[in-house]
Structure formats: structure tokens, C-alpha cells
Hints:
The chain is α+β, with helices and mostly antiparallel strands. It contains 11 helices and 14 strands. It has helices at 18-22, 58-68, 76-89, 112-132, 205-212, 215-220, 249-254, 261-268, 306-315, 319-325, 341-349, and strands at 37-39, 42-53, 95-105, 138-146, 154-165, 180-185, 241-242, 247-248, 273-278, 294-298, 330-336, 355-363, 369-374, 377-381. The radius of gyration is 20 Å and the shape is globular. The two termini are 20 Å apart.
Amino acid sequence: MPSSKYSELGVDVDKKGISSIKGVTDDLFPDSFCSVVRDPENPESGLILHEDGAGSKPIISYLYLRETGEYRWFAGLAQDVLAMNLDDVVCVGGMPIAFSDYVALNTMRLDREALLSSLASGFSETFGILGRLGCRVLFCGGETADLPDIMRTLDISGTVFGRVRINNMITGKDISPGDLIIGIRSGGRCSYENRDNSGIMCNGISLARHSLLRNEYYKKYPEIGHEGSKGYYGRFRIDDDLPELGMTVGEALLSPTRIFFPIILEILGRVPVKALIHNTGGGLTKSLRLGRDILYVKDSLPEPDPIFRLIGEESCESPREMCRNYNMGIGMEVVVGKGHEEEAIRSVEKFGVGAQVIGRCERSNGKNAVLIRRGSEEYLFQ
């Protein structure tokens, strides 16, 4: 039996099976946040070639297109793809150098030119923001594939090339009992964003759209689901404006993933960091992959952003599984030695982003574990 509402939709947050691929890579530190290989021309330098995508978020853009006739709803996906890649690369102390994109679409349902024009607008805006913040990344173009026989709607992903000095890599190997965990908020509005962010990022979108949106959308556009599913079972339309969200349901689901790259560079320039965790697939349990014999105790978490409470209520997903499916308002975690937490938090707050100590590291018995405490509730993940 599926262990969660999310897994019922065919999504496995543990991604069982990827160990077979990792076992044949040339990764120098298999337990680090993303793969790094040694530069064959410079043994002191590590090369990073990292790929990630926007998940099923493009389906929300597609739904907006069908309901409004406007392609502008695809522009934000450019920020999503950049954020999902750049923030993974910086987690090992890497410096992103160049980016390329990959767009696969069903040309029987989407106008390629209109779609690419919208994405180009999004990439131009996001690269411009990064450049003004001193985080220049080269855009090398990419690939567009017309795949009407394969794609129901579209998929968008990207690849980042970066470098890191091997001696300066952040691998998590130095995490020790007594270290503190700082959580950086994924919601709200930071100084370089022009709109409020729901905080959802790119993970858990399948459960979110199925549980929140009305089944009438699935009946009108069956391509936004898959055969064998029970369809959408939510109460809301995409343009329903909910006071608790401060935006419409559709805007909350499509809210672009925050780019933490500039914030992390500021922290790295001021504080010795032992680990960085981008809370994407796996949510608040993502730290399980870093360190050895560490128990991550997260007992001072802030209240989740309203979008997470709404998804939990409407989907009837258990609070425990919500912590595995979603970042629950903490998009990035920073592990530092005691005494460095205040400077790290000040570095984050310079950008208007909330940050706080959310927990600490303790000794575990034999393997890594995450313990989440919220009031009287306690969830252990291993």
C-alpha cells in the first residue's frame, strides 16, 4: 500500500533506484549534496555538471494558458529552473559558471514560438537580477524538442556547469554534535523579488494541484493528469483569491522558487559553513544525506507558510509526510558551529529574508536521522 497521498500519484520522494546510477559515476564525494568530479587538467579543481527541472509545475502554467489564452504564465518557470540548479551547486561551495536549458513540448497543444518567447522573457529578467547582485552566470542556450508523441504538455529543465576548489568543498563531513541548524525562509518577499512568494518552490506540486484544484479542470483538459488516477479532487479554481494566502490559489502554486544563491554567497563570505542543504525533494528530511552518524534535531521550526497548511488540510496528507514532501517554509538550511549563528542570520536578513536557528546536531546511533518536533508531535526519519 502507498505510504502517503503523494506516493499514490506515482511520486517517490526517496527516489529508490538512483543508487545504481550513483554507483557508476566518477563523483569524488558521493555523500555530498551534488556530484563533483576531478578536473583532469587540474587535480586541485572540481567540475560540476548539475541538472534539475521544474517538476510538474509547468502543468499549472499550461492550465493558466488554457483558461486565459495567455502565454505569460510560463515566464516564471525560468526562475524555477535556475533556482533548482544554482542553489544545488552552491550547496557544495561551487561557483556556477554557465547554464543551458532543455524544453520538451507537445507542439499539437502548444505554440512553440509563443512558449519560447515567454520563457526568454523569464530568463532575461532572472539573469538580469542575478547580474545586478554580482552573481553573473553565462546563458549558453539549450535544446528545444518537439515531442508530441511523448509529452502530454511540456517539460522544462536546465543544466549548470560550475567549478569548486576541492580543498574548499562543503561536503558535510565536518558536521559534529553541537553544531546549529539555521533555516532560511522560502516564502515572503526578499529584496530582489518583485512579488510575494508562497514558498512552495518546485516540489510536491503533483499533490498540491490534485488536492486543491477542481476536477472540472481534469475533465476539460485530461492531459493535465494521467490515466488511472482519480483526477483532481480539490475545491478551488486557479483564480480563487484566498485571504490566508494573500494571493490566488493558482498564483501560490506557480510562485517562482526563490534563488538563494546570492544569500549563500554573502554567508560564505562571512561565516565558516559546515553544510548547506537545499530543501527540495525530501523536504525537511533532505539533510539525511549529509554527515556521518548525525541526528538533526529540528525543534524550533517556524509556522509553515499558509500554502502548506492548505495542502495538508485538503489532501489529508499526514503531518509527518508533509515534512517529507515539502520544505514547509524552510527553503535552505545552513549548518554552522556554535557562535557563528548570529552573523549568518544577519547575512540573510540583509536581503529581507527571514532566518532563525531551527535546531541542532546531535550524535546518532549508527546512521543519520532527522527528528522533527512540533508541539507535542514528534517525527523521526532515518
